[in-house]
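Lab notebook page, bench 4
Experiment: in silico fold of construct C2
Operator: M.H.
Input chain length: 383 residues
Purpose: comparison with the prior construct
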Amino acid sequence: MTYINRWIFGLILSVLCSPLVFANEPIKIGVSLSLTGKYSVMGISQMRGFMLWERDINAKGGLLGRRVKVKVYDDKSDPDIARQLYEKIITEDKVDFLFGPYSSPITEAVLPITERNNFPVLITGASGDKLWEQGYKNAIGVFLPASKFCTGIFELIVISGLDNIALIHADDLFSNTIRQQAYLLANRYGIKITYSESFKKGTRDLSPFALKARDSGAEVIILGGHFEDAVDMRLALKKIDWMPKAYFATVGAALDEYGKRLKGDAEYTFSVSLWEAKTNFPGAKRFYDDYLKTYGEPPTYHAAIAYSGGQILETAIKKAGHIDRDRLRDQLFKMDTITVLGRYGVDSTGRQVRQQSFIIQWQKGKREIVWPERIATARPVFK
């Protein structure tokens, strides 16, 4: 079944499982996602998460006695298209609330629009710290900012006694944040950066960068990028017949698709994950089972983030007793709640400060949690 057919199936289920009668017009929530283009793997996962939440909340009677409708548009992984879509969603669709698009660059492109229209937006697909450094009063983060993504891997690097790392990253907002944080952590822990370079987003052959990392004497490669970047760097390492003692790739390597694409070559890759079913947050197992039953494959953490965004909005609306945007904004800034993703709570800028991240590693064909130690399902392996 294609993802489009599964999406249609999910929509049919949402109708069949919903109460037959609702008062008033539906509560409309708008979002553009990367259903096609370079971020499509993550965008499709997020769409599914939103659709599953829509189905579940309507099956429980909706919100304030009204059905909930999530309107999803395809921004084709293009910031300019996303800008146009959010203008349309706000001015023509006249939605009641907004979820943010996938990726930090696209979210950065649409935030001036949401701010100008005084629309609070739950940022469910981006983590670049710069998003919360512009003074926006409507940008509310759902998951941990990018500056926290490397914390766990650096702790493991220090514990393992490794000293030399190479930093390779795409030239985008999220990946640059990864680089900056890696520099800070390397300085803090006394780790030497033997090589650091960025590559133009969309570059597929990363073997020249892998060669430079190898020749620099690096023991660890930290790659800042997205799904295809993570895959391409692993293929580059195979091409030059070299594997560092640790290869850490943000975002992409935490997805099942990484293992499907690379098969045995995925082995020993580290990544950061923001949700794993094994952590067993309240409702996480039911979410996992429902997602698997509906879409025929396990949820990614991107899907869990989207679903949790719906749960956060649900809680805020119930607490406010209204869909007035000013009241909802106030609730979202002061709330401290638990979702399938874990704990939610933001600081005065809207930056997420309460969520936990995990370091996973591919071992024997599956992802294992290797950090933090208290919930680890396996010990980390360094080559």
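Observations: DSSP finds twelve helices and 14 strands in the chain. The longest strand covers residues 192-199.
Next step: discuss at group meeting.
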